[in-house]
Design goal:
Elements: E1 2-6, H1 11-14, H2 17-26, E2 30-35, H3 40-45, E3 51-52, H4 57-65, H5 77-104, E4 108-111, H6 117-125, E5 129-132, H7 140-156, E6 171-174, E7 190-193, H8 208-211, E8 218-222, H9 232-242, E9 248-252, E10 269-272, H10 277-281, E11 286-289, H11 293-301, E12 306-308, H12 315-325, E13 328-330, H13 338-349, H14 354-368, H15 372-375, H16 377-382
């Protein structure tokens, strides 16, 4: 079987694709990955040679901000997401995916819920489309706004526009642990649970100074890799609140930032652009993050409690889910000040914290979910 995997070019979207692609390869199938330039290196590190298509994430975002329906920053998330993923990425990617399919002749397509060109291609070719989730199902208002955006692409192909923008055509791979689910089950023909994996491989190596940590609690701090959210000003606020505590702080600030640009920091703060999460989280006691699906599920996979400071996208939904499951303290934008940050961190990092116990319970749920190798059998059945 030949499987075409495609994704929009953001780490948080493409990283969950990689264990699925590897599982399909391990099951004996030929896999092609088509992604944007931002994540080319990430795909190559996983052992695949990607086909690079479409604009960068920053280019798409800037074009979306110029859309008349958006009108600049401050617009509702659903409107902006529809403009970016439905109005920019989908029409750019569709002709390139058609060209790839002409040569590769895929038997199935795998894509994230924000890549709206792939389901059109799958419907044109009469092959199954599988959507892999990366957290909660997309908010209904975002799906509706995106469906409206991409309806002309369906109709131009001689197809009836899908009411869900193609997100739930045939199969949905659901990585959300049961106790974290906020809404109902995805309205796909087949819904298959799949274990969310921590990014990285068994051969990933940490810097020696991180390997030497362990005499006192270790706190990991991340605001993801999207420039809109990982602003240095936010890092400075978080660090100022807790840098004096008896903790070691490991901070990743994203590839777009320079560690030297942060305020002068003491020796207990270790700052990097990026570190592999799989070995890192094994050495940590708690996580402070923005609530992005990748970091949040990775922390819970490792059984670590969280402090979440959501800013946008799916982060508020993930924060609510963590509150519901008891795994995190959440500081919404108006609450992000020194005393609240310090109190939240010291509360969750305590050895007997209720958040730690809840995180371990969710970790057990995740461990019981089907691994990618088993979950992807459903794609064979559909094809």
């Amino acid at each position: 079987m030949r499987v075409l995997c495609t994704s929009t070019p953001m780490d948080g979207v493409v990283i969950p694709l990689l264990p699925i692609a590897q599982a399909l390869r391990d099951r004996g199938h030929e896999v092609m990955i088509a992604v944007g330039p931002d994540v080319q290196a990430r795909v190559e590190e996983s052992g695949f040679t990607p086909t690079v298509i479409g604009p960068s994430a920053m280019e798409a975002a800037m074009r979306a901000f110029g859309d008349p329906a958006v009108g600049g920053p401050g617009v509702a998330d659903a409107v902006f997401a529809a403009a970016m993923f439905g109005g920019v990425f989908a029409p750019e990617l569709l002709p390139e995916l058609r060209r790839i399919a002409d040569g590769f002749a895929p038997d199935a397509v795998v894509h994230p819920p924000v890549e709206f060109a792939a389901p059109i291609l799958a419907t044109e070719r009469g092959i199954p489309a599988t959507t892999y989730g990366f957290g909660q199902v997309l908010p209904a208002d975002m799906v509706a706004a995106s469906a409206e955006r991409v309806a002309p692409l369906w109709e131009a192909s001689g197809l009836a526009a899908d009411p869900y923008a193609g997100v739930y055509l045939d199969c949905y791979l659901d990585p959300c642990p049961p106790s974290m689910r906020l809404g109902g089950v995805a309205p796909a023909r087949v819904v298959q649970a799949i274990r969310p994996e921590i990014a990285g491989g068994d051969s990933d190596v940490l810097p020696p100074e991180i390997m030497a940590l362990g005499e006192r609690p270790v706190l990991y701090i991340s605001l993801g890799t999207v420039p809109l959210f990982n602003q240095l000003t936010t890092f400075n606020v978080l660090l100022d609140a807790i840098v004096a505590e008896d903790l070691d702080l490991v901070v990743t600030i994203g590839p777009n930032n320079d560690p030297a640009a942060l305020a002068e920091l003491p020796a207990n703060v270790h700052t990097y652009r990026w570190l592999p999460l799989r070995p890192l989280l094994d050495r940590c006691d708690a996580v402070v993050c923005h609530g992005g699906s990748g970091t949040t599920l990775a922390a819970l996979h490792a059984g670590l409690p969280l402090v979440i400071v959501p800013q946008g996208a799916d982060q508020f939904e993930n924060a609510i889910a963590c509150e519901k499951s008891g795994t995190a303290r959440v500081l919404r934008p108006d609450d992000v000040e020194s005393a609240a940050i310090r109190d939240a961190v010291l509360a969750v990092i305590a050895t007997q914290s209720s958040e730690r116990s809840a995180a371990r319970a969710v970790a057990a749920e995740i461990a019981a979910m089907p691994a990618a190798f088993d979950a992807t059998a459903v794609i064979e059945t559909l094809a």
